[in-house]
């Protein structure tokens, strides 16, 4: 990417709509109500032949206290400081408001370059607001309609010379982007597990109930206040991703919105936020289920962990706010016992205690993530699997429904991520679920695959001998051939 463009402006002027158009995907949540975006979201923008990084920011509000809008404003100001270019967006239909003048003054002082854009400028109703924008004194405004795609050629014309100016810097920065993983990381992941790289980092989603500390944890991992945090529940709305090389392993970490019970999710915006979080789980490789140490294993926590398991992701359970826990040893023993009881489908998954606020336990969390990732990618040789299967059958033979024993003939691993196995057997529809669980639990224990989802499929294989009936068929054909030869010979004599 040659340069960074931050889209800033008052709430509800269309910043996220323009962001989605530039990245070519519906990454940012969009709604009619103001203040939907709260965190900074980065994306790879494409405009013609231009490639650059675009940042969607929270709406600027004229607040300076420690309230949520004020914290959002400080985060946006941070984006202004680090961006190469700021696209200051106003609403042409609403005209220039007092806050627009305040923020224009801030951008004049803090931004390196400012482009003024009058959005929603389609039609004559926007003319008055467009001409009013000249009063801001930061250059000629550009007519845009982010929703309908109007004005994109004008934006291209303005950004083209900026892109050319930054080309030299992009060439110098390119080697840093294409860093390859060194030999020491090969020791982290054994058994031919595919190594994360800068191009394909390890995808991690952090999920949990509202106010569990997900955004604080992401900030602690990356070492900066990148995510908006605070005592209020439900601050995060979008699933925001950040990239970080953590202990030598390139990772992309998704901070997701807190997931409440479905019955409590009434607002359209919260439904969109939860859907965004579920989409992040589907794209993730490892899911960190974050629990609050004060109230762990609530019903909603169990549903969230079960969702990650059903999606086939590697799962790590992290218990946050451990720094304020008094009886640590007793609580830890209770947590492990309760985990085995309430989440049997994840038995053996890594469970770590952390404090996202102080940073305690971050090294244990990183090791647990890598352990879960390694197990998720494990592959077992077919010969070893079939020797194991013989032992399992001799120890506990499959049942014989209606006096006819089910035969398990052959087993192989069909896939990894998560590990998936196929067993060729007779009458797979009659094999009880309890026997499949017996095999899955045996796989976990004997091949050191605790906690990872395991998929076991029974595939039918007929008892019938494939050569049965072929001898009779061949004998009939031989007799027919002999008769035809005899008739031919009789004709020749005559």
TrEMBL record:
Signal peptide: none annotated. Residues 468-485 have a biased composition (Basic residues). GTP 2 binds at residues 208-215, 255-259, 320-323. Belongs to the TRAFAC class TrmE-Era-EngA-EngB-Septin-like GTPase superfamily. EngA (Der) GTPase family. GTPase that plays an essential role in the late steps of ribosome biogenesis. Pfam families: KH_dom-like, MMR_HSR1. Associates with the 50S ribosomal subunit. It comes from Tropicibacter naphthalenivorans. This is GTPase Der. The keyword tRNA processing does not apply. GTP 1 binds at residues 9-16, 56-60, 119-122. The gene is der.
């Amino acid at each position: 990417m040659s340069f960074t463009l931050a889209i800033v402006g008052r709430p509800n002027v269309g910043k996220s709509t323009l962001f989605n158009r530039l990245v070519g995907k519906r990454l940012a949540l969009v709604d009619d109500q103001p203040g939907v975006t709260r965190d900074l979201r980065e994306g790879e923008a494409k405009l013609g032949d231009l490639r650059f990084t675009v940042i969607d920011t929270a709406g600027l509000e004229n607040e300076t206290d420690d309230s949520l809008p004020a914290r959002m404003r400080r985060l946006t100001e941070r984006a202004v400081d680090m961006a190469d270019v700021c696209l200051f967006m106003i609403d042409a239909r609403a005209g220039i408001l007092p806050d627009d003048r305040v923020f224009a003054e801030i951008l004049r002082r803090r931004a390196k370059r400012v482009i003024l854009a009058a959005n929603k400028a389609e039609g004559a109703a926007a003319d008055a607001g467009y001409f009013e924008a000249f009063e801001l004194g930061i250059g000629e405004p550009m007519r845009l309609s982010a929703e309908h795609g109007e004005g994109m050629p004008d934006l291209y014309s303005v950004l083209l010379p900026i892109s050319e100016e930054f080309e030299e810097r992009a060439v110098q920065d390119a080697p840093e982007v294409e860093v390859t993983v060194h030999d020491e990381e090969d020791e982290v992941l054994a058994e031919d597990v595919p190594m994360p790289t800068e191009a394909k980092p390890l995808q991690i989603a952090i999920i949990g109930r509202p106010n569990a500390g997900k955004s604080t944890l992401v900030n602690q991992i990356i070492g900066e206040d990148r995510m908006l945090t605070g005592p209020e529940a439900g601050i995060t709305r979008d699933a925001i991703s950040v990239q970080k090389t953590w202990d030598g392993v390139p990772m992309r970490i998704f901070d997701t919105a807190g997931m409440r019970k479905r019955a409590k999710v009434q607002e359209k915006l919260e439904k969109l936020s939860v859907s965004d979080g579920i989409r992040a789980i589907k794209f993730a490789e490892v899911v960190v289920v974050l629990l609050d140490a004060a109230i762990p294993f609530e019903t909603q926590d169990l549903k969230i962990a079960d969702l990650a398991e059903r999606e086939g992701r590697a799962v790590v359970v992290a218990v946050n706010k451990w720094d304020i826990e008094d009886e640590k040893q007793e609580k830890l023993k209770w947590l492990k016992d309760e985990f085995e009881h309430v989440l049997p489908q994840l038995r053996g998954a890594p469970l770590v205690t952390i404090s996202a606020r102080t940073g305690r336990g971050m090294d244990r969390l990183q090791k647990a993530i890598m352990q879960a990732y390694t197990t998720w990618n494990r592959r077992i040789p077919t010969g070893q699997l079939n020797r194991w299967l013989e032992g399992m059958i001799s120890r506990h033979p499959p049942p014989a429904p209606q006096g006819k024993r089910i035969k398990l003939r052959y087993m192989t691993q069909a896939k990894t991520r998560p590990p998936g196995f196929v067993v060729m057997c007779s009458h797979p529809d009659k094999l009880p679920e309890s026997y499949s669980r017996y095999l899955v639990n045996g796989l976990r224990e004997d091949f050191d695959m605790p906690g990872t989802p395991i998929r076991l499929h029974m595939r039918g294989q007929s008892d019938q001998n494939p050569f049965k009936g072929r001898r009779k068929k061949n004998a009939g054909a031989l007799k027919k051939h002999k008769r035809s030869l005899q008739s031919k010979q009789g004709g020749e004599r005559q």
